[in-house]
Predict the structure.
Amino acid sequence: MSNVILVPSNDDKNIATVTHLSGILFTFIPSLIVWLLKKNDNEYLSAQAKEALNFQITILLAQFVAGILVAILVGFLLLGIIWLFNLVLCVVAAISTSNGETYRYPLSLRLIN
């Protein structure tokens, strides 16, 4: 059996791109919805939605820890850094998926396999 690499359709690329970008405003909800709807139908969308979901859960956990650290004033700085990190990496992921590439977020916990 040969390994066949399927190129994602334009619709798949667009959905993956929007899934990554929507994490900026709506955290993990859009990626969870896409993953639940496409996990058995579309390997590319399933993988990208799962990647976005894992990253947004990681960001949510980091924001929670930073929120606790606000009490010692270091949390304010961390919240800004986390927000900027989320913004930049979501845009990079969106650009990659719009080109049909797969994207793996760095420093992301792999909670959903």
